[in-house]
Amino acid sequence: MSEDTDPELEALRKKRVHQIQMMYLAEEEKKNWPSSPVHITDAEFQDVISRYPVVLLDLWAQWCMPCKMIGPILEKLAQEFQGKAVIAKMDVDRNPATPNAFKVRGIPTLVVFKDGKAVERTTGAMGRNALHSLLSRYTD
């Protein structure tokens, strides 16, 4: 029996081709990830943190100056980390359930979710390097 007709070898070949196709599809899907922060509600929260492997949730408010200061940084990081992480923004005044569940007492509060679980949290404005470092810990 030649190698070309060996059923075991053919099964392994098909399995590997399928794995490569799935990896390619996963990489293609990452290109469709948001390249800017997504504004989410309490109702969308669970879906977003379960859909993407890494999510940085920015809990903010319109009247919060430190929140406004980090906004442009988060915009740029969303582009830089596209396909690796998603940045989600939630207005705490319009969506009180999620901030209450996480006992948020000050804003901006940033929570990193990895595979749907909160893994790190920080409160207060941060510079670009600190925010980049925060995301890099979970994406590299």
Overall strand count: 5
Q: How helix-rich are the residues, as a percent range?
A: 40-55%
* Overall tally of structural domains: 2
Low-confidence stretches: none
User: Average pLDDT, to the nearest integer?
Assistant: 91
User: What percentage of the residues does DSSP assign to strands (E)?
Assistant: 15-25%
Specify the structural class: alpha/beta
The biggest beta sheet reads: 5 strands, mixed
CATH classification class of the largest domain:
Alpha Beta
Pattern of helices and strands: HEHEHEHEEH
What is the molecular shape? Answer: elongated
In CATH, the architecture of the largest domain is 3-Layer(aba) Sandwich
What can you see in these coordinates?
- The model has no long low-confidence stretch (mean pLDDT 91).
- The protein has five helices and five strands.
- Helices cover 48% and strands 20% of the residues.
- A hairpin with a 2-residue loop joins strand 4 (109-114) and strand 5.
- The longest helix is centred in the first third of the chain and has 24 residues, at 7-30.
- The protein has a five-stranded mixed beta sheet, with helices on both faces.
- The protein folds into two domains: 1-32; 34-139, Glutaredoxin (3-Layer(aba) Sandwich), CATH 3.40.30.
